[in-house]
Design goal:
By secondary structure, the protein is α/β, with parallel strands linked by helices. Among the domains are: 11-155, Hotdog Thioesterase (Thiol Ester Dehydrase, Chain A); 284-436, Isopropylmalate Dehydrogenase (3-Layer(aba) Sandwich), CATH 3.40.718. Helix content is 35%, strand content 23%. It is built from 15 helices and 18 strands. It has a 6-stranded mixed beta sheet with strand order 15-14-16-13-12-17, sandwiched between helices. Strands 2-4-5-6-3 form a 5-stranded antiparallel beta sheet, with helices on one face. A 5-stranded parallel beta sheet has the order 10-9-8-11-18, sandwiched between helices. Strand 14, helix 11 (354-367) and strand 15 form a beta-alpha-beta unit. Helix 5 (169-179) crosses helix 15 (450-466), helix 6 crosses helix 15 (450-466) and helix 8 crosses helix 9 (268-276). The N and C termini lie far apart (69 Å).
Length: 468
């Protein structure tokens, strides 16, 4: 009997027709995972809800998600093409009978057995059987192949890693959480282009906000008419220009009419100038900071990164405020005890690296109750903060290392680069909000996709509800 080659073996080798004997067998063993089902659905296009919709499957005949039948058929093909006969085999015919479903976690043993050889045509007939963990057959059938007539031994090809990621899944969960909340009255500052106006109206339609449009009314109505957007039942506060829009939006907060701000078609500096104004602004005792809530395909949970947009070179007290803002947001979106990684280039305190010294001080501040609601550790290099493999290699003992919820950058430049690299090299999506003012502020970018804008609104709504 041939057994499945070990992954470390460097070659794949066949059994030419002349070497194959009646009764010869080969097998492999696979345990079905949810990722296997998703991958098969993506490649085949078969999104039958019995395989990919847990709620539907629960009420279906088997009361659970099951594998596509041809997942087992593909395993049979794997044995034929890689072991018996192996490379050079030509598939001619395959019959299959599906006897029992295979569910997530089931271990399937696939065995093929040679039952006949046709010397004149170099054809081999094989009995095919897939059994589950208790030895009962789940698939049976017969294959007929043309076996190779010469020995083939080739280097085993290393396949690329497969990363399965449902785009927008993190934001969908946040949206579902926010859906249960009353809509958040939001001053939308200068929504004078299609993306910002559409985002305000779509989040209104989703029940996330009550938009208060602040800007030149004629321009707003012109954009709405050109894009077919519905402004019925929307209050517009007419202003002559963008500076006035920002100032009026801040006034709406002071008047109690708005509980959040959303940036429209104007520069971030214009919004923030009105927000940070010493007279009439929205300052609090805490320093304002920006927080990205990122959906990273290669990370298993939401990842918060701060500060990447406001504080250029924060001192120790500013970093404490930045951290507390991020903790408060993490808790508002459902992370009860966030793990905070204070980033630097190394994981040891080094006097010549100021960020490592401040990381140590911030951890002690948390020990003394000056920063609350989370577990802090640092300094940690980026890999040590998010990779359990790196943690194991370096022998780091930490409740945070390898599983951080929040990454605190030492300065704006590094924070911005981390976030942008994740977006453009790792396919991450980034929704953002500014905290530390009297109300949350959504600083959406003109380059943001609509889903990101909606996610930022959901985040602000969750935070707004948490601080009531």
């Amino acid at each position: 009997m041939l057994s499945e080659p070990a992954p470390s073996m460097g070659f794949i080798e066949n059994r030419p027709f002349g070497e194959i004997e009646i009764g010869e067998t080969a097998e492999l063993v696979r345990t079905l995972s949810a990722q296997d089902i998703d991958a098969f659905a993506v490649v085949s296009g078969d999104v039958n809800p019995a395989h990919v919709d847990a709620a539907f499957a629960q009420d279906d005949v088997f009361h659970k998600v099951i594998a596509h039948g041809m997942w087992g058929g593909a395993l049979i093909s794997t044995v034929l093409g890689t072991q018996l006969p192996g490379p050079g085999t030509i598939y001619l015919d395959q019959s299959l009978k599906f006897l029992k479903p295979v569910g997530v976690g089931d271990t399937v043993t696939v065995r093929v057995t040679v039952t006949d050889k046709d010397t004149s045509k170099k054809r081999v007939t094989l009995d095919c059987k897939c059994t589950n963990g208790d030895g009962r057959p789940v698939i049976t059938g017969q294959a007929i192949v043309i076996a190779p007539d010469r020995k083939i031994r080739r280097p085993r090809v290393t396949m690329p890693d497969l990363v399965m990621h449902q785009r927008g899944a993190v934001y969908d969960r946040l949206l579902a959480q926010a859906d249960a909340l009353p809509p958040l009255p939001t001053a939308v500052v200068h929504p004078c282009d299609e993306p910002s106006l559409r985002a305000a109206l779509e989040t209104r339609d989703l029940g996330l906000i009550i938009p208060l449009l602040v800007g030149p009314e004629a321009r707003i109505r012109s954009v709405a008419e050109a894009e077919g957007l519905d402004l019925s039942d929307v209050q517009i506060f007419d202003t002559p220009h963008s500076h006035a829009s920002a100032e009026t939006a801040v006034t709406l907060v002071h008047n109690g009419q708005a509980r959040a701000l959303m940036k429209g078609a104007l520069h971030t500096d214009e919004v923030m100038s009105a927000v940070v104004a010493k007279q009439g602004g929205l300052r609090t005792e805490r320093r304002m900071s920006h927080i990205y809530v990122m959906d990273v395909p290669t990370y298993t949970k939401p990842l918060l990164i701060t500060d990447a947009a406001i504080n250029i070179a924060p001192d120790l007290q500013t970093k404490a405020d930045i951290i507390q803002n991020a903790i408060d947001l993490a808790r508002a979106i459902g992370i009860d005890t966030p793990k905070v990684a204070l980033l630097s280039a190394v994981e040891t305190i080094t006097p010549r690296l100021q960020s490592t010294v401040e990381a140590g001080a911030l951890c002690k501040m948390a020990d003394r109750g000056q920063i609350t609601g989370a577990i802090l550790d640092g300094p940690l290099a980026f890999d040590n903060a998010i990779s359990m493999r790196a943690v194991a290699t370096k022998g780091i003992t930490s409740e945070v290392a390898g599983q951080a919820d929040i990454l605190v950058a030492p300065d704006l430049e590094s924070g911005n680069m981390i976030a942008k690299q994740l977006m453009y090299l790792a396919g991450a999506e980034a929704a953002g909000v500014v905290l530390g003012a009297q109300v949350p502020i959504m600083l959406t970018s003109r380059a943001d996709e609509n889903r990101t804008r909606i996610a930022s609104t959901a985040i602000a709504a969750l935070f707004g509800e948490a601080i009531l």
